[in-house]
Design a protein that fits this description.
alpha/beta; binds iron/sulfur cluster; about 35% helix; 9-stranded mixed sheet; 12 strands
Length: about 450
């Protein structure tokens, strides 16, 4: 075959992409400074100590008094008072690692995207949507045994524990995860030994189950021996082909992967064991903002990549955190840069006490259009709604009907529950004054809902 070599200078101008200024490729810029030293309580903390995940756990912020001790005069007293009231009114327990705390911009904590996710402020809280339920995804309804949700034909969600290295204000599983708060008494899951045995017995008894998500709570809080026990038990089942350990750890305490050798080796051991059996074991994680990714994260992800561990990311679309084309594109590119595959971007579930963080389906459609094409397709996340009521994940574009005025979108999920309609609701703060008033009236709510379902049945998108 004869190949003609075309030099760049002989190409028509329109065919040549102009070179990009390397200074604009900011997704490659990962901070490697001692950023924690600006927090008064950590000013003298050495790199070695800051990298110790036990130190990170022990010094995590769980009470407003600890926040005050850590920050001292870095923030105004009014902010701490606002936070104290926020802690009292939050349905979710608060737990923030020193790593996360140090990445917050304390010159502008109100707007900071990490503060918004983890530290509640009473002044920013908004009333919940009237259609919100505590377990909005009906995980307990679809649970044949406590802590095991079987919704999709071939996949189940196993929740071996209810604790996490940090607690996210927006946790979908706030009905069970974390400790009781003034607002929510958590659902008890029973004793671990019994529950795990029942879950394993159920999984083994269902030949159609091939894929198990081990979530929680958070797999970071499983002991190394427990990771091995779960992996060995599930991989030994002939029906099981795929396991995913889900953890927010890399986003909130990446040091553990570098320095908790026992935990890391248990994970890598499970991946290697799976590979020998021709079964897939991967890690799923949860970055929401590019500021959560530092040089420490890159070192941790490099280590896992070297050991052949696939890491995929699930993001939650949140107002004031990542609801712009620029931020989401930067996040997707930065994840790709550290070998983490951007897998899903979720519409924010209808969760108690975080209406200020939710945004509209229209915002997701807009951002998705701009992110798609910014990088390779296999590094482009699918934007989904986890359909309230247990419909499972639906592509945001697949709505049967969407009324931007009332904020109601209707989805169907034929492979999960044929014939059912699932409704997602935009937050009231994003609607017109007229629509907000209609939502205040129960009869009007019913009319809007019935009308949306009817129009979905008529396929009026
Ligand atoms: S780490 Fe996951 S399970 Fe834990 S609080 Fe955050 S979202 Fe919920």
């Amino acid at each position: 075959m004869h190949l003609t070599i075309v030099s760049a200078s002989s190409l028509p101008r329109s065919a040549v992409k102009p070179a990009v200024d390397p200074a604009t490729l900011v997704y490659k810029e990962l901070r490697r400074d001692e950023f924690w030293r600006k927090i008064p309580a950590y000013a003298e903390v050495s790199t070695e100590t800051f990298h110790d995940s036990l130190w990170q756990s022990k010094h995590s912020i769980t009470k407003v008094e600890k926040l005050l001790t850590a920050l001292q005069d870095l923030v105004a007293p009014a902010f701490l008072e606002d936070a104290a009231n926020g802690f009292l009114r939050a349905p979710m327990s608060v737990r923030v690692s020193p790593y996360l705390l140090s990445l917050i911009d304390w010159e502008n904590p109100i707007e900071d995207p990490l503060r918004r996710q983890f530290i509640p402020l009473a002044s920013t809280l908004l009333p919940d949507h009237p259609c919100l339920h505590l377990d909005s995804l009906h995980e307990q309804v679809d649970a044949p045994v406590a802590g095991l949700t079987h919704r999709y034909p071939d996949k189940a969600l196993f929740l071996p524990l209810t604790t996490c290295p940090v607690y996210c204000r927006f946790c979908t599983r706030s009905y069970a995860v974390g400790i009781d708060t003034d607002k929510v008494e958590k659902v008890g899951m029973g004793t671990q030994e019994n529950r795990w045995a029942q879950a394993f017995a159920y999984i083994a008894s269902r030949p159609e189950l091939e894929d198990i998500v081990v979530s929680g709570g958070d797999a970071y809080n499983l002991r190394a021996a427990q990771i091995t026990q779960i992996a060995d038990t599930l991989l030994a089942m002939p029906n099981i082909r795929r396991l995913r350990f889900a953890t927010k750890g890399p986003a909130v305490m990446p040091q553990k992967i570098l320095h908790d050798v026992a935990w890391r080796e248990a994970l890598c051991g499970a991946v290697e064991k799976g590979r020998k059996l021709h079964k897939e074991v991967v890690l799923h994680t949860h970055f929401n903002h590019p500021n959560e990714i530092t040089g420490i994260t890159q070192d941790a992800m490099n280590l896992l990549f070297f050991r052949g561990v696939t890491v995929r990311n699930q993001t939650v679309l949140q107002r004031g955190v990542n609801d712009s084309v620029e931020t989401m594109t930067l996040l997707v590119k930065r994840l790709g840069h550290i070998n983490v595959q951007p897998y899903y971007v979720y519409m924010h579930d209808l969760v108690q006490g975080v209406e200020d963080l939710r945004t509209t389906l229209d915002t997701a459609l807009h951002i998705e259009k701009h992110v798609r094409g910014a990088t390779a397709g296999f590094h482009t996340p699918t934007f989904v709604v986890d359909a309230p009521g247990g419909g499972g994940k639906r592509d945001v574009h697949s709505y049967e009907h969407y009324d931007r005025e009332t904020g109601i979108s209707v989805f169907s999920s034929p492979a999960v529950k044929k014939g059912e309609s699932y409704l997602y609701y935009d937050p009231l703060h994003a609607l017109s004054e007229v629509a907000r008033r209609r939502w205040e009236d129960e009869a009007e709510r019913q009319i809007m809902t019935d009308n949306a379902v009817l129009r979905a049945e008529r396929r009026e998108r």
